[in-house]
Design a protein that fits this description.
By secondary structure, the protein is mainly alpha-helical. It is built from 7 helices and 2 strands; from the N terminus they run αααβααααβ.
């Protein structure tokens, strides 16, 4: 099936999947923040990896639970490069958290990027990352 436009009926499911991924990432990194001697840096590194690599197997935890997957715009399976590229827009916040002192801005940067991504998802039924990578999310 050749499909070049995102399915607007999946916007709500995608948002729920994003929340699931966010909660899982927060739980994954929360305990690490309290580690002495660099816990915040370790937490930032874990979040960076979580958001960048979350779609590596073809779908993030949230997408898997909701029966969604990442594909190319033509409907063919997406490759690893495209799945990494689509998540580059999600990592500046965690990346900032790895920089001493500037790390305090990480949550603000993350919030701003989430708002941009939500805007794209609501208005265009795709994330900015999907646009950059030439991918879309479909139901399995």
């Amino acid at each position: 099936m050749v499909k070049s436009r995102p399915d607007s009926s999946l916007t709500g499911l995608r948002a729920v999947g994003y929340v699931i991924d966010g909660v899982a990432g927060a739980v994954l990194s929360f305990g690490l923040t309290w580690l002495p001697d660099g816990g915040a840096l370790i937490s930032g590194a874990v979040l960076l990896a979580w958001w960048l690599l979350r779609d590596l197997p073809g779908a993030s935890l949230g997408k898997r639970l909701l029966g969604l997957k990442v594909v190319r715009r033509d409907g063919s399976p997406s490759d690893v490069r495209a799945r990494l590229l689509r998540n580059l827009t999600l990592i500046p916040g965690p990346l900032f958290s790895l920089i001493p002192i500037a790390g305090l801005t990480g949550p603000v940067v993350s919030l701003c990027l989430v708002l941009v991504e939500v805007g794209f998802l609501v208005l265009r039924h795709e994330r900015l990352g999907d646009r950059l990578a030439g991918t879309m999310v479909i139901q399995k």
